[in-house]
From TrEMBL:
Required for the formation of a threonylcarbamoyl group on adenosine at position 37 (t(6)A37) in mitochondrial tRNAs that read codons beginning with adenine. Probably involved in the transfer of the threonylcarbamoyl moiety of threonylcarbamoyl-AMP (TC-AMP) to the N6 group of A37. Involved in mitochondrial genome maintenance. GO terms for cellular component: mitochondrion. Its cofactor is a divalent metal cation. This is N(6)-L-threonylcarbamoyladenine synthase. It holds the Pfam family TsaD.
């Protein structure tokens, strides 16, 4: 903890109270940097959560064209873009590096080669400008983004569904999470991405620039979900874990069968892609909703959620999906929980969520390091159960 260093870079400004009397407030500013997967993101926030400047470079199209994320390619793209993205966020914010209170950067979990670029850049930056450094856990950042937008008190239940994770946890504090369930194999987003690729959705005129999950959601809108039946995973297992590998297998078998029937070659589109998308999306939504329902019942039975306004927060890229949100709303309405999902742009990876996590840590004086301390990244790092 560096209280002196933290106070050193605050900006003092005069504001008026409700009674009209002038008083001075100290504003603090955090630069957040995200490079854990395939988005190079940076943002500058003040301690009220106001976004002063942000910039995001997405590698999505490159990885779609390559048929998946190739880590050295992701690393090279982060390397090429990080300086520009950080400079853009700073320029847009009007904040000089000298005025920053701290720099917060994702150090876990993620792709080692991608994390390394953000961390190397940040290390050099904080040493050059002699700023405190706040290492950030990417999933904690997803879980806490909602508090930048709504006054949500701890504890709350959080469902995180992204390309790399599917988990349910009780958020008890900014760095205290009780893991209730996680995926036993693949993540929800990864499964949607791989099935979208298997269906060659990149060759669909409306889907060429969409992530797998986005493509499935778009096509599902016009599909008949009853045209295919995929079994919901883990029906006999009474816990809060997830599993998507078996579902992927079922869908792949159905696709192969249809391809044989229609005489469709590799790279061509099946006539029934919309129906497959609708049935797949429904099964994913139903699996997520069932495990979330179980987690809510568990928390209620153990008195883990507050009586007043118990809340389910949903975030991560897959949480952008409207169908999944609506399915979860049925669960929260039935159990008396309040459902909160950040808007889509804050569900997928970005620099804002990292800067906000830095602000939360700054306010509580947790996990703040000096610019000269050694920090390493940890590609695989999950919440403890
Ligand atoms: O959180 P995120 O941006 O990156 C990770 O930390 O993984 O999530 C990306 C994932 C991808 O798998 C993508 O297909 C999925 O989120 N996704 C969606 C939607 N938008 C993005 N899945 C379903 N429906 C969507 N609308
Ligand atoms: Zn993420």
């Amino acid at each position: 903890m560096l209280p002196c260093a933290l106070n050193g870079a605050a900006r003092c400004c005069m504001e008026r109270s409700a009674s009209g009397r002038a008083f001075s407030t100290v504003r603090r500013f955090v630069l957040g940097i995200e490079t854990s997967c395939d988005e190079t993101g940076a943002a500058v926030l003040d301690d009220t959560g106001a976004i002063l400047g942000e910039s995001l470079h997405s590698q999505k199209q490159t990885h779609l064209d390559a048929g998946g994320i190739i880590p050295p390619v992701a690393q090279q793209l982060h390397r090429e873009n990080i300086s520009r993205v950080v400079q853009e966020a700073l320029d847009r914010s009007g904040i000089e590096p000298s005025e920053l209170t701290a720099v917060a950067t994702t150090v876990k979990p993620g792709l080692a080669l991608s994390l390394g670029i953000g961390l190397d850049f940040s290390r050099k930056f904080v040493r050059l400008h002699e700023k405190p450094f706040i290492p950030i856990h990417h999933m904690e950042a997803h879980a806490l983004t909602v508090r930048m937008l709504h006054p949500v008190d701890f504890p709350f239940l959080v469902l995180l569904v992204s390309g790399g994770h599917s988990l349910l946890a009780l958020a008890k504090g900014i760095d205290e999470f009780l893991l209730l369930g996680q995926t036993l194999d693949a993540a929800a987003g990864d499964t949607l991405d791989k099935i979208a690729r298997r269906l060659s959705l990149r060759n669909h005129p409306e889907c060429s620039s969409l992530s797998g999950g986005q493509a499935i959601e778009l096509l599902a809108k016009e599909g008949d979900r009853l045209a295919f039946h995929f079994k919901s995973p883990m029906g006999q297992l009474y816990d809060c874990n997830f599993s998507f590998a078996g579902l992927r297998n079922q869908v792949t078998l159905a696709i192969s069968k249809k391809e044989r029937e229609e005489g469709v070659e590799k790279g061509q589109l099946l006539s029934c892609v919309k129906d497959i998308a609708a049935a797949l999306q429904h099964t994913v939504a139903s699996h997520i909703a069932k495990r979330t329902h179980r987690a809510i019942l568990f928390c209620k039975s153990k008195g883990l959620l507050p009586q007043h306004n118990p809340t389910l927060v949903v975030s991560g890229g897959v949480a952008s999906n409207e169908y999944i949100r609506q399915t979860l709303k049925i669960v929260t309405d039935a159990t008396g929980l309040h459902l909160l999902c950040p808007p889509s742009k804050f569900c997928t990876d970005n620099g804002v969520m990292i800067a906000w996590n830095g602000i939360e840590r700054l306010k509580q004086g947790k996990g703040i390091m000096s610019h000269s301390e050694e920090v390493n990244y940890e590609p695989k790092h999950y919440f403890r159960s």
